[in-house]
């Protein structure tokens, strides 16, 4: 095996005007290895990846691929050199089929130069068989779950036969079974002699999959260690520059009056007979596997999705179905799972996004100035530690975790009675996770009701006063905090158990 790294960056820098995004990006990735790249949101990981992918050109430092100096001026050049990147957010064309998305820009041709659709479909079927998934190659990408979109992005990267595969939070929306499939594929690619970079905030995944780990902080290289020679505590200290003493700072509260009451909510083929209550001062978790119907229930409660039967009441007031504006006036807020498509105006500023839902409250005589808007936005941007140098920063340029915090800030600015939050720490680093958990706990202590949807069992067990478990569109268990364990939550999520009465 060659001793020359497949990828080597030394002291690579990148600035956008006065903003320094990358000070000293340094990493060396060997063939036949899986190399973790970790750091808090804003540490410079995404900027480094985009330089390797050809989206950005470096300002300084050294970039080598297989021992040769390179300077990609486009993504096409990077791909041609054998680099494939799977980004955190899917980038599919919704109107094209799954097959067309995988082969976009490189369709095989047959006689007379016509696109060979049969060959394309055959290759996609082979890829999905290798990945162990069942997705119709001919269906449009629009409407696919985030999990399925991620699988398609992975299939696209595998089909490129790249020598360097960079995976940026690829498991964020995948179930445990899908994660294991991905890990099996990643290990097989490593065993073939390829180099992989794995970016994740989930340390259990990093330590289960990777051979080596590089830590970044504030745009700079901090350290590289073998996985066998380090620990989670050491990595966290290197990432945040301080001790994170408590990841789940749950305050003890006494549940008060019902704030959100859901009775008999039914949408045929999606969920059936969903009934539950969220009281003042408590965090209720909605747990289950990807595809169980949790997000669909949340969207129906808020009025984004229609449902056939059932009743939703907020503070005793019945909310008409399909009326998000009425739900908001009653005191509901929804932080969605897919922040880019459902929670952000990505081409608008941070300040605009945070104040989007409260503009009518801020305006005076129909006028809203930038100063008025920024004063209102600054408080929540500060409380959530949004790493943005100015409120006029375009939201699209923020890291995934910071985008999530902007969406959360937008809805908290409405001062809701009940906060429905779907995957609250998806794509957020460990330091900020603790801050978000502390904020949710404080909101509950202040008398608000929290309905939290999470695929992370430690988060569910660490933060919830009660756990509602869904399986195939039905509630299968309600477990109080004192009785909750990984075993009984997963049992209810994966096996038919006694239905709730």
From TrEMBL:
Cellular compartments per GO CC: plasma membrane
GO terms, molecular function: ATP binding; ATP hydrolysis activity
Location relative to the cell: Cell membrane
Stretches assigned to the ABC transporter domain: 7-497
Superkingdom, natural source: Bacteria
Stored SUPFAM superfamilies: P-loop containing nucleoside triphosphate hydrolases
Name of a matching Pfam family: ABC_tran
Membrane topology: Peripheral membrane protein
CDD domains xrefs: ABC_Carb_Monos_I (cd03216), ABC_Carb_Monos_II (cd03215)
UniProt keyword list: ATP-binding, Cell membrane, Membrane, Nucleotide-binding, Repeat, Sugar transport, Translocase, Transport
UniProt name for this protein: Sugar ABC transporter ATP-binding protein
